[in-house]
Amino acid sequence: MTMDKIEKLKNLVRTNDKTFWRSLEEAADDPQVQDYLRHEFPQSGSFWDGKITRRSFLKLMSAQIMMLALAGCSKSVEKIIPYVKSQEGIIPGKPLYFATAISFSGFARGVLVESHMGRPTKIEGNPHHPDSLGATDCITQAVLYQLYDPDRSRGILFNNLPATWKQFTDALAARMPKLRARKGEGLRFLSKPIISPTLASLREQILQTFPSAKWHQYSPIHCDCSRQALFEMYGQDLQPVFRIKNADVIVSIESDFLAQGSGALAYSREFSQRRRIDSQNLKMNRLYALESTPTLTGAMADHRLIFSPIEMRIFLKSLWKLLQNDSPSQHNLLSKENQRRVEAMADDLAQHSKKSLLIAGAEQPVDIQIMVGQINHLLANVGQTIDYIASNEPASENGTESIRTLAKELHDQKVTDLFVIDSNPVYATPADLQFNEAYEKAEFRVHMGLYLDETAGLSQWHIPSAQELEAWGDLKAFDGTVTIRQPLIEPLYNGKTDYDLCALFVDRGNESSLEMIQRYWSEKNPRADFPDFWNKTLHDGVMEQSASPAISLPAPKLIKVNDDHPVGPEPFTLLIRPDPHILDGQFANNGWLQELPKPLTRLTWENVALISPTFAQSSNLTNGEVIEISKNNQKIQAPIWIFPGQANQVITIHLGYGRRAAGTIGNGLGFDAFKIQNSVSPFEIQGVAVKKTGTLIQLASSQQHSSMEGRDLVIAADLSTYQSQPDFVSRTVSPSPEKEETLYHPKEHLENEYQWGMAIDLNLCIGCNACTLACQVENNIPVVGKSEVINSREMHWIRVDRYYEGPVENPQTHHQPVPCMHCENAPCELMCPVEATTHSQEGLNEMTYNRCIGTRYCSNNCPYKVRRFNFYAYTQAEPDLIRLARNPDVTVRTRGVMEKCTYCVQRINHARIEAREENRKIRDGEVITACQQVCPAQAITFGNIRDPQSQVSKKKGHDLHYGILTDLGTRPRTTYLAKIKNPNPKMV
Amino acid sequence: MDKHEHFITAEKPDYASIDRSVIGIPLEKGFRRPWLFVFAVAFPLFIVLQISIFWLFVKGVGIWGIRIPVGWGFAIINFVWWIGIGHAGTFISAFLFLLHQPWRAAINRFAETMTLFAVMCAGMFPILHLGRPQRFYWMVPYPNTMGLWPQFRSPLMWDIFAVTTYFTVSLLFWYTGLLPDLASARDRAQTYWKKRIYGILSLGWRGAAVHWEKFNTLYLLLAGISTPLVVSVHTVVSFDFASSIVPGWHTTIFPPYFVAGAIYSGFAMVLTLMIPVRKIYHLESIITEAHLDVMAKVTLTTGLIVGYGYMMEMFIAWYSGNLYEHFLIKNVTTGPYGIMYWMLILCNVIAVQILWFPQVRRNPVILFILSIIFNIGMWLERFVIVVVSLHRDFMPSAWAMYYPTVWDWSTYLGTIGFFFVAILIFVRTLPMIASFEVKELLTHEHK
Amino acid sequence: MAARYADKDQLVEAARLARSNGYTRMEAYSPFPVEELFEILGHKDRRLPWAVFFGGLTGCLAGFFMQFYANVFDDKLNIGGRPFNSWPAFIPITFELTVLFAAITGFVTLLSRCGLPEIYHPVFNIPTFDRASLDSFFLCIMADDPKFNIEEVSEFLKKTNAADMNRVEH
Predict the structure, then answer these.
(1) Cβ-proximal residues to B107 (8 Å cutoff; 6+ apart), any chain
(2) Do residues B203 and B179 touch, judged by C-beta distance below 8 A?
(3) A292 and A364 together in one domain
(4) What's the pLDDT score for residue B187?
(5) Chain A residues with CB inside 8 Å of C86's CB?
(6) Region for residue A663 given its phi and psi (left: phi exceeds 0; alpha: psi -120 to 50; beta: otherwise)
(7) Cβ contact (<8 Å) for C80 and A826?
(8) Total number of domains constituting chain A
């Protein structure tokens, strides 16, 4: 390409505004583009040479947008399909569902993606997939935002200059002979842990053709310690899979197995089946949580004990010794209470051998993992409540080790060619490796990723990779089940997959990733009917019998765990955890996730240093004050947040923030926790110095008050009180007036046969906020930004309230999702002067957006404060591309209009239309609201309360059932079931 | 105090001197220095109002400090405050007319004008505070193709009818009373244009006996229906709060308490305006100290009723035994906005007691300062009612603090600017005291 | 023929004399209302109060029926479970419209009964008439009075010590 064209293209790409054509060469000299422009704008024929004024530029770009937005979505670019002959299978208005999978670090989650006219608009769980069982968490929902993120990289860059794929393949081919000659010496690959069998086979082939090359697998979120511990115990490369359903007693050691990590959804589904209070529940399980920083699993625990990491080891060791019933050596180090507690817990576990389970968090060091493994073996749980399967990742190497060796080799300039696939080492590696300086020492640096992130900035070649929903692939779930990932849409920016890149090394460059995967699987299990097998796998989203079998193992080697513990000079311990929503920073530019309130702290748009209330009191810190945390020469500055339940001398910070090249949304949010991380013990740093800096930041929390102030909002009791008085709920809640107890004549309003209602079981709700985000995606709810969240104007239709009860040090935590109550005597409808909100014959409180003039009296009069208002034109401010993610069945609200949860009225209407077509009644469970569908614990039930057989009527008939604020006479249709705890009577 | 405690203290009481001093003002040439000074302050504020309204329509209601749960903020506080101020005028001209109070003659026109401009300021806010102000006409029951009616059960609908009715009736009442004076202004006017304008405005009023007979009957009837109207309008405004279920709003004391508060703040504003105008235009002989004394007495009585209202509000909240009301008492008195509440008590309950002393009631300077304090107190009362009840009600998870933004203040001060500009224009162009009533009073004096 | 008096009582005296003299078609002008004149000149009539009453009544019925029709017949919606005919909620608007219609009919009747707005009226031609709104009182005897003849009337008015007298051309 001539230099001036490149020059023009460079600034076009650099401006990164509304221009999003398919690829640069197409825009540059593709004849079709030229004559289209000449035809469309005859007077500006010499588009490229003429002076581009700002006005003409925008006018031309709008033509581009029109043409390309259409091309971007349809299956094939060149042919524009007239609707006279509609594509088979596409009925305008009727969505199609495709089974595919989303990969996370170390596991994949099978999903169904709803596609409207070839445009993916919603991600749902895949009921057949073992990890999802029909549910998803908030991150899986938010991957859709990443597909349409305007800040994604849009073209191949060579030294920050636009280039084409052909130029890259030629440059690589030029270096290939030298690499083959040197047998790949100096050739290094760095990728996330490989969970794709085809990619693993490609990796094998590359390492065969280049024997002295190395392939490093690293991700900041890894379970190296547990794999290393299992390797030391059993001598094989194993991976645990828990059977929570079989476990009566579970002890979670600093692990958030219900909400984070691989298999979280399956575990929370099984856990909730054992917590359900109804007839066919065999026996309610019991959960202990030993934690230094509160997690969602800790909030669900019947007993939550706070330990600093050192006390945790002592407690576990004495528990282990007690289970082997000999006297624990360091028992006296524990406080009196803890000694009684460890004895009570030991008895409880001993009684439930074969039916108990200990789970250590992925971030726990190797010695704790070994102790947990030994105790599990001691209690004969292996095979009952825990199975060990072969690890998903091909090579059993420790991720931190491999990145440390790569950094050392880079520093020693032993690496000539470095290929970074889908990871961001310059940002996401411990600071002591100084990866940013090391990275530039490699001669030929290629980065393949979704964003022009920190690593891409320093690379010679940057190739935009295809996003999860745009690429073929085969991925293993947490229990090894394989899913074939199928693309929903042609890659928006002509992104390449990691298969394409690896194929260049084994000169299979001409094969597409689909062919490679099909070839791999046809060789792996050759069968005559391979095409039907392939289509069935694509259709179900799961390859049957592909789960890796449980391995029967001999007794583990008994490993002595030493007693001494390094106590640092400074009293403070720093715990580093991946952010519950942004993980290791890959979702930093995701507006939905940034605005989703973090679990338990309810903060948004920020990461903070969590400290305990006593520590805050002693050094009189208030929320938002910035402290400086330092260890040796690494130091960071972080605002603090007082966190009830946090261990006293322990500070917790989260990764994923402080990014410099995440995109317009992600840049400059929070502080970079990697700066203080060291590769020796990445998640726990002893002896950290803390200093006040005196500055104060305003944090955007979506809930400012966390005590219930004596109102009957969440009702909780122990199992014993429930068993002795089953109707304790109706006695505590003040009675609400009966329907007939009124001066009016209630029969006046005719009600048809469907009366919609919802029951939320607080006993099962984990507080993971998946429902909040699913509702945001389903109902086109805009992101409002940090300053508006500070003004408490966030737009989520369902908010999960978190209440604390009991002592500030270690309070009981209750979660309560609050959608709209759809009250029968709605106080909001009475106040609207223009009848913008009325009551339907099916019991829905309807909101007519185009009638609303925005007096906001309905929101003032709503006792539950569930109504949200468009103070500004939030939806217009969203970038154009994100509008493609919108659900076409839901109106997008403008400025000045009130909005609220509508019980997903568009889904009710879909079901009614289908029922009417097949002239039958709407079956129970046919209408599933977005929050109900996504809830891993199935805590939300929705249905027709007039039909006594429906699930929701059974729940509403339950004696734990109650409504909130019913004494106001609003008669809410959304009601709750009380929360029951199952404490160990011996444990105080 | 005898019935006519010399409300006219002119040395040589004759019609001409009254006429010259009252009708003369609008006809004089040029502007007086104090008039220009106040105008120089008020007009820039009026410009600020226009800028804030422009910016509000461009960006949306988000520029104000309102949020969820505090959906209403300065807009509604100012609306209630202004409409409260507006009630003194009609109260004086209607209710006191029925009671044959002689002292109302000197001040009723001025108070009625103040009512009209206050209602204009108040009328702006229900439209400005809408999310989509361009659709305000949907609140009017006009026949439409959508087959939709406004929702008549909503207190905001009652508001619309109440404020428009109140404005129309006050306008008619004011204009009827103004006719004779316009006629005398027409007769006194020298320049060509003043004759024409006043002539047209006075609709050819000749002072004929048949005119006066009809005038008297109508004036009596209008006074008769305006008195309940005054009470009903501010009751409807109090229904905006009383008919909701928000703790702190849902109390039965609101209607009488709001009406008393309205008259109280209305009289305070009349005093605030009357004392300087009386000084500048040397009307001490017509608006005598006796007037100030009587007005201060009315302010004292209504202030005591308002104080009773506060006490009753707290007592009923405590007495009801309702959990949310108990919390409300604690939150109002000791919560984050506690200082507002105690300043309110200081202004409206403690400061009023000074009016028991006659020498204070007759001293214009102290009375002027006190009247400003009373109006600040009333504004604080509306702030405490609107914001404190909303920011912490039923669900603790939705509690949040409310902070006004610069645009809140600019709109509020802007309306004050607009109000004073309007008053100044009125004082300069129309006779501000009903001269025929004063003359009538004069004839009675001498009998 | 119009006569000007400097004092209210003189006017009343003159009017009473004229009345006893048999003149019926008379009119008096004064800067403020003089109650005694109304019987003498026979202007008392009950038309205005009735008009205001019926105006208010129509306002009341119109207000209530508008709301009743809107909520019970035309736009039947379930608002917060409240009945369609929630008459207690209709009362404030009914009252407001009553007052509004009463006031408007009252004002309109005043203008129509007084023949206003009539910018030009022959009586303005009296040179000193501008004092009618200042401090003097006028009595004017119309030409179409059955007993009217110019000399007799001017004679009579002189006797009532009028300040000055002048003819008023139509």
Answers:
(1) B92, B270, B274, B287, B291, B295, B433
(2) yes
(3) yes
(4) 85
(5) 744
(6) left
(7) yes
(8) 4
Q: What chains are in contact with C, requiring at least 3 Cβ pairs below 8 Å?
A: A, B
Contact B246 A868 (CB under 8 A): no
Extended strands (E) in A424-567? 444-449, 461-464, 473-476, 482-485
> A747: which chain C residues are within 8 Å (Cβ-Cβ)?
none
Q: Which domain holds residue A18?
A: 3-73
Residue B155, classed as helix, strand or coil, is helix
CATH superfamily of this structure's domain B15-139+150-446? Formate dehydrogenase/DMSO reductase domain (1.20.1630.10)
How far does the CA of residue C159 sit from the closest CA of chain B (Å)? Answer: 22
- Give B407 to chain A, closest Cα distance, Å: 14
B352: Cβ contacts below 8 Å, ≥ 6 apart: B299, B300, B303, B304, B307, B374
Q: What is the pLDDT of residue B12?
A: 53
Beta strands at C164-166 and A716-718: parallel, antiparallel or unpaired: unpaired
Contacts of B155 in chain A (CB under 8 A): 831, 857
Q: Could you tell me which chain C residue has the CA closest to the CA of A839?
A: C78
Rounded to the nearest angstrom, the minimum Cα separation between B258 and chain A is 19
CB proximity list for A389: less than 8 A, separation 6 or greater: A238, A239, A241, A479, A480, A547, A548, A549, A550, A551
Whichever domain contains A621, its CATH number is 2.40.40.20
CB within 8 Å: C78 and A841: yes
Q: Cβ contacts (< 8 Å) between A840 and chain C: which residues?
A: 78
Among C67, C76, C79, most A C-beta atoms within 10 A, so best to mutate, is C79
Q: Where are the extended beta strands (E) located within A265-310?
A: 286-291, 303-306
- Look at residue A357 and give its three-state secondary structure: strand
Which phi-psi region, left, alpha or beta, contains residue A840 (left: φ > 0; alpha: ψ -120 to 50)? beta
Which burial class, exposed, middle or buried, applies to A149 when counting CB atoms under 10 A from its CB (0-12, 13-18, 19+)?
A: buried
Token pair of A409, please?
A: 């080799």
Distance from CA of B298 to the nearest CA of C (A): 26
The answer on A774 and A894 residing in a single domain is yes
Interface of A with B in 880-899 (CB under 8 A): 894-898
B336-357 pLDDT tens trace: 999 999 999 999 999 999 999 9
Domain CATH for A256:
3.40.228.10
Is residue A933 domain-resident? yes
Q: For residue A19, how many other CB atoms are within 10 A of its CB?
A: 17
Q: How far is C61 from chain B (nearest CA, A)?
A: 15
In a domain, A383, yes or no: yes
Q: Do A863 and B245 touch (CB under 8 A)?
A: yes
Interface residue ranges in chain A relative to chain C, Cβ cutoff 8 Å: 744-746, 748-749, 823-830, 835, 838-841, 971
Answer yes or no: are the C-beta atoms of A145 and A483 closer than 8 Å: no
* Residue at a domain's end among A339, A371, A390: A390
CB–CB contact A853 B149 (8 Å): no
ipTM of this predicted complex? 0.90
Contact status, residue A650 vs residue A576, Cβ threshold 8 Å: no
When scoring C78, C84, C87 by the number of chain A Cβ atoms within 10 A, the one with the most, hence best to mutate, is: C78
Cα atoms in the 13 Å half-sphere on the side-chain side of A971: 16
| A444-482 pLDDT per residue, tens | 999 999 999 999 999 999 999 999 999 999 999 988 899
Averages of pLDDT over runs of 10 residues in chain B (447 residues) are: 52 70 80 89 95 94 93 95 91 85 83 93 94 93 89 94 95 91 86 88 85 89 92 94 93 92 93 90 84 91 94 92 92 94 94 92 92 95 94 92 95 95 91 84 71
Judged by CB atoms closer than 8 Å, whether chains meet at C132 and B207 is answered as: yes
Assigned domain for A333 exists: yes
A766 shares a domain with A902: yes
